[in-house]
Design goal:
Length: 482
């Protein structure tokens, strides 16, 4: 159930978050996990005296690449083709799914193994393959948990962050047999034992799979090299053992040179897993005779990215390297969890990326720019300096201009009319003072949500304007008596 298409039709963020906040176990799981990752990140980032300069370099490389994206994408295509690979261009999710499905069908296979890939989740690839009679097996441990549990990912780095180890044990015991090697009957909830059960379950998949599907963390334009970083080794198995490899990659993942890649291989592990380097960094360039997959296909995915690129404020979102640092410091995500965002991209980055990729035509996507306190913690930890609060406010303006939040717009229009005329404002203030006892503590209708967690201030009996006028009319008061 981990495809992007399955997220549509879910309730808007306020409703989904309200339900999530009421789940005490979920809040406990999220708080423990995010605080652990946050602490590890702070420690390894603190080791580098030049972290601000490294962060600025990452931002500069990304901005340069985005300004020249057309040129670098053509360079990627030329280099991959020269290295024996095949490049396909997909304008949207439907086209990408069609390309991948046809490529798998051409092999005659009915099973594929997958490296953890947010791009394929974004387009709902697993569901598209299933509809064509092809079964996709997730091999990342957290993604495996999500898939076996018929669940949805809730974190960029740790998709099963909302599950504790007891829940994972129950999922393995209940579901593993239907997907392959069953879990041992005496399975416990010890992390080492759970990992071993997953390893045994996946081993037969790695050794028998003829087709693999991956994403990529980066593409190096000068050589056409793709890069995947991961911590478990499952990616290395998928990228080397199958005969055919299909990589679905967002067009924003390109970097110009290997020298530029070096910057991100320092930024990403520290910001994501709190490590100095990733345990597994796999690179491949086209096809190498006798070594690894002998049929390689790169699917370059747009799916709304060129629309984001055209927005002068919003385009900085495409700098994102999917590290998840913003999720781990966000007070909203920590309490609401990832499912409340209704997207494969949760947290602060999801609140700006999803509405730009999908638009704000439905209630869910229109609500996401408001899923923030605008505290700015996300910007402070972002390794490529995406000003998420700035983009959130920018998107809120677009939602309002598009006809959203009608009650708020009406209230602001009325307030503007009152404040535009001093005499009009004075009359309203006097009326509010005289009827102050009738003002409710809780607003009715759309305003009720605002006063659920705030006290509505009681209007003063006398406005400052009237008090000042009375003071000026009255006898002068000696300065020392004031």
């Amino acid at each position: 159930m981990s495809g992007g298409s399955t997220f549509l039709g879910l309730p808007a963020f306020p409703s989904a978050a309200r339900d999530a906040v009421g789940n005490a176990q979920l809040r406990h799981n999220l708080r423990k996990a995010t605080h652990t990752i946050r602490g590890k990140r702070a420690a390894v980032v603190g080791e580098l005296d030049d972290w601000p300069e490294l962060r600025a370099a990452g931002k500069a490389v990304k901005d340069h690449t985005l300004r020249n994206l057309d040129r670098y994408l053509l360079q990627v295509e030329e280099a991959v083709t020269a290295a024996g690979g095949h490049v396909h261009w997909a304008a949207d999710a439907a086209e990408a799914n069609h390309i991948v499905t046809d490529l798998v069908k051409a092999t005659g296979e009915r099973d594929v193994v997958k490296v953890k890939s947010m791009a394929t989740q974004e387009i709902g690839l697993n569901e598209a393959l299933e509809a064509a009679g092809i079964r996709a097996y997730e091999t990342d441990l957290a993604e495996l948990i999500v898939q076996l549990g018929d669940d949805r990912p809730s974190h960029i780095l740790v998709p099963a962050i909302h599950r504790n180890r007891s829940e994972i044990r129950e999922i393995f015991l209940r579901e593993m047999a239907a997907w392959g090697e069953p879990a041992p009957a005496d399975l416990t909830d010890e992390p080492r034992v759970l990992a071993e059960a997953a390893r045994r379950h996946l081993r037969e998949r790695f050794l028998t799979a003829k087709v693999a599907v991956s994403g990529a963390n980066f593409m190096v334009a000068e050589t056409g090299t793709l890069v995947v970083v991961e911590s478990e080794g499952n990616g290395r198995m998928c990228l080397t053992l199958p005969e055919t490899l299909i990589s679905v990659v967002g067009i924003e993942k390109v970097v110009p040179t290997w020298r530029d890649l070096e910057v991100f291989l320092q930024l990403l592990p520290r910001s994501s897993t709190g490590e100095r380097m990733n345990p597994y960094t796999s690179t491949w360039t086209g096809v190498t005779p006798g070594d690894g997959p002998q049929d390689f296909h790169l699917v370059l995915l747009d799916n709304g990215r060129t629309r984001v690129l055209a927005d002068e404020v919003g385009r900085q979102t495409l700098r994102c390297i999917r590290c998840s640092a913003c999720l781990n410091v966000c007070p909203v995500y920590e309490r609401a969890g990832g499912h409340a965002y209704g997207s494969v991209y949760p947290g602060p980055i999801g609140a700006i990326l999803t509405p730009q990729l999908r638009g704000t035509a439905n209630e869910l996507d229109a609500s996401l720019p408001y899923a923030s306190t605008l505290c700015g913690a996300c910007y402070e930890v972002c390794p490529v300096a995406i000003d998420i609060p700035e983009v959130l406010v920018h998107l809120r303006e677009q939602v309002a201009e598009g006809g959203g939040h009608r009650a708020e717009r009406a209230a602001m229009k009325a307030a503007g009319w009152i404040f535009a005329d001093p005499a009009r404002l004075a009359r309203v203030q006097r009326a509010a003072g005289r009827t102050r006892r009738l003002v409710p503590r809780r607003l009715p209708g759309p305003g009720a949500a605002w006063t659920d967690t705030r006290d509505l201030p009681e209007p003063p009996a006398q406005s400052f304007r009237d008090w000042w006028a009375a003071e000026r009319r009255g006898p002068a008061t000696p300065r020392g008596d004031r």
